[in-house]
Amino acid sequence: MDRAPFERKPFILMVDDHPENLRVLAAILDAEGYHFTPATSGEQALKILNKRPPDLILLDIMMPGMNGYEVCRILKDRPATRDIPVIFLTARFETGDIVKGFDLGCADYVTKPFNAVELLARIRTHLSITRISNERRELIHVLCHDLTNIFNPIIACAALMKDAASLPRLRGEVLSSAKSGLKLITLIRKIHAWEEGKLTLDLAPVNLREAVAESAMMMRKKASEKQVTLRVEIDADLHAYAEPVALTNSVINNLLANAIKFSFPGGTVFLTAERDADRVILTVRDDGIGMSQSLLAGLFDITRQTTRPGTAGEEGTGYGMPLVQKFVQACGGDIVVTSREKAPGVTDHGTQARVRLRAAPCPEAGG
Questions:
Q1: What are the C-alpha distances in Å from 233 to residues 203, 210, 269, 270?
Q2: What is the pLDDT of residue 18?
Q3: Which residues contact residue 311 at a Cβ distance below 8 angstroms, ignoring those fewer than 6 apart?
Q4: Where are the alpha helices (DSSP H) in 65-166?
Q5: Which domains does the chain have, with CATH numbers?
Q6: Residue 284 · residue 271 · CB < 8 Å
Q7: pLDDT greater than 70 at residue 118
Q8: Which of 41, 45, 135, 190 is the most exposed place for a label (fewest CB within 10 A)?
Q9: CA–CA gap between residue 112 and residue 58 (Å, rounded)
């Protein structure tokens, strides 16, 4: 099993009908380590976009056939490509041309001849803006999903409260879920430091067995529906430094929900933790359908949606894992996911996520 890569170089599409212009751009982008591909017409650019959406497009305007304005209009009309930043790189410098470009939705407008240093600065700026925008969008999306996980047990408990014998246990679960929901809302209000992709959290010692138990309670309905067994083997005195709400609701919940989703009915999900020097390693493992290496490679890439249906047809978003990694790293830890896809003759299929956090001392009683 291979470790999934954490980062990739941005991919840029260059569109210009003059080969010499493309050679100049290629030399500039190559020196900065960007991945890129050329297109010599608007039609060719759209074909490339259908196969592999880039992170940014450098687009000439004056081209035979489909000009740059028309290409930009088509891109901005398509939901799958409308958020890709387009920088017009053109010899047209009249005010009307520039206004038309921005009216069509371009991110920037650079006239030829251009300065290479300035162009690279604009590229970096728009790639950064797009990344931060995507991260914030995913944050909202995934935290809303986390809130759904919290309210599901409340709804399930309410449906069962007509059984008087179950009331004491159900009352405890309702209170626990409601308190988790309020804590998550508080966390959402506190998250504000996204500059340069860095998220800061207030860390505290967290009892891992208690955090996993709280998550398992919220995931119990999903596991029960698939007859998936949750097997927890975590010592009571294992503590790690983390933001308690983020660890339970955004890290463990997502890992556990994925493990259940991709387990086969009647399967087992294992949750274990161990001390390793000054670190604590929390592992969530299933023996389910697994992932292909290509899917695994994009697991933490916020620009690549890795959603697919679960083994019982469950729908997903594909947005959770980039945020899981973000929270783990904000806690001073790291996460490694390995997987092997189910196939004929493969017996050790399934997925394993290992979250490594700084070990924390066991808080004194009443401290």
A1: 24, 12, 11, 8
A2: 93
A3: 226, 261, 262, 263, 264, 265, 288, 289
A4: 68-77, 95-103, 116-160
A5: 11-114 (3.40.50.2300), 130-360 (3.30.565.10)
A6: yes
A7: yes
A8: 190
A9: 12
Tell if the pTM clears 0.70, that is, is over it: no
Which tokens go with 169?
């246990």
Of 277, 283, 214, residue with least CA distance to 246: 214
Question: Which pLDDT band, with edges at 50, 70 and 90, does 235 fall under?
Answer: very high
Closest CA to 338 of 296, 367, 302: 296
CA distance 288 to 269: 9
More confident residue, 172 or 318: 172
- Cβ–Cβ under 8 Å, residues 312 and 323: no
Q: Give Cα 46 distance to the centre of its chain.
A: 26
* Contacts by 110-116, CB closer than 8 A, 24 or more apart: 112/21, 114/89, 116/28
CA pair distance 367, 321, nearest whole angstrom? 34
DSSP 104: T
What's the Cα-to-Cα distance from 324 to each of 82, 102, 227, 355, rounded to whole Å?
26, 36, 26, 10
Q: Which two tokens stand for residue 279?
A: 């670190």
Residue 194 confidence (pLDDT)? 46
Residue 318 Cα distances to 260, 296, 349, angstroms = 15, 12, 21
b/e sequence 158-190, b meaning 16+ C-beta within 10 Å: eeeeeeeeeeeebeebbebbeebbebbeebeee
Residue range 31-48, pLDDT digits in tens: 988 999 999 999 999 999
**If you ran DSSP here, which 8-state letter would residue 34 be given?**
-
In degrees, to the nearest 5, what angle opens at C-alpha 170 toward C-alphas 176 and 225? 95
Cα–Cα distance measured from residue 138 to residue 223, given in angstroms and rounded to the nearest whole number: 25
